[in-house]
Amino acid sequence: MLEAKNIHKIYSRTNKDVEVLKGLELRIDKGVFAAVVGPSGAGKSTLLHILGGLDSPTTGAVYFKGKDIYSLKDSALCELRNKSIGFVFQFYHLLQEFTVIENVLMPAMVGARGSFGSNEKKSALELLDMVGLDKRGEHFPSELSGGEQQRVALVRALINNPEILFCDEPTGNLDSQSGKEVISLIRSLNKDKGMTVVLVTHNLELVGSTDRLCRLEDGKLG
């Protein structure tokens, strides 16, 4: 489903270039829950952004369902991210001036170019109910706890029914209990719905029930 081939990522600094990823290879099959672990600064987030079409590699290719995503036109890559890929980040990135339901519907609105119907709102309400936030739809992010905000971010990532979910340190800003609840929801999406998940974390306690564990060290996966 997803394959990265010979990925190099080099950042240019004032005095020298820094190579973060060094010929990295990775294959993720459909329905797999994979975790990438490694210390802070190892390049985990960089890798996730490249896999998800957010940041291009210096050299190498990323294939999604056999298609090189970085050979696509910008408009086609944007559509791929919107329709087929979901993202959950360490920071919730909720829009404070919009309600919970409006935040959840934002990717659907972008994908429909501002016009969508009752089906999308029905899906949003069902997803909020799934994560225990069915009574919070008209609230604003500032009225929610950190754990609730991250659940809203998760629902937002799911609104367009993506084929793969990328999670970048999704519990990094949460207390232990809230973190466990969010990870439990992500696991259930994989087990019950067969969603492909790629989780990046430095917390080894979160990866116990994943199908595959990859360690990122010295720019390569071991």
Any chance you could write out the topology, listing elements then pairs?
Layout: E1 2-12, E2 17-28, E3 33-37, H1 44-51, E4 59-64, E5 67-68, H2 74-84, E6 85-88, H3 100-111, H4 118-130, H5 146-158, E7 164-168, H6 176-193, E8 196-201, E9 212-217, E10 220-221
Parallel strand pairs: 3-8, 3-9, 6-7, 7-8
Antiparallel strand pairs: 1-2, 1-4, 4-5, 9-10
Helix pairs in contact: 3-4, 3-5, 5-6
Structure summarized in a few sentences:
Helices cover 34% and strands 27% of the residues. The chain is of the alpha/beta class and 222 residues long. The strands form two sheets. A six-stranded mixed β-sheet has the order 6-7-8-3-9-10, sandwiched between helices. Strands 2-1-4-5 form a four-stranded antiparallel β-sheet, covered by helices on one side.
Folded structure, characterized:
The structure is a single chain. With 222 residues, the chain is α/β, with parallel strands linked by helices. The protein has a single domain (29-57, 85-215), classed as Rossmann fold. The chain is 34% helix and 27% strand. It is built from six helices and ten strands. It has helices at 44-51, 74-84, 100-111, 118-130, 146-158, 176-193, and strands spanning 2-12, 17-28, 33-37, 59-64, 67-68, 85-88, 164-168, 196-201, 212-217, 220-221. A six-stranded mixed sheet has the order 6-7-8-3-9-10, sandwiched between helices. Strands 2-1-4-5 form a four-stranded antiparallel sheet, with helices on one face. Strand 4 and strand 5 (67-68) form a beta hairpin. Helix 3 crosses helix 4, helix 3 (100-111) packs parallel to helix 5 (146-158) and helix 5 packs parallel to helix 6 (176-193). The longest helix has 18 residues, at 176-193. It starts with a strand and ends with a strand. The relative contact order is 0.21.
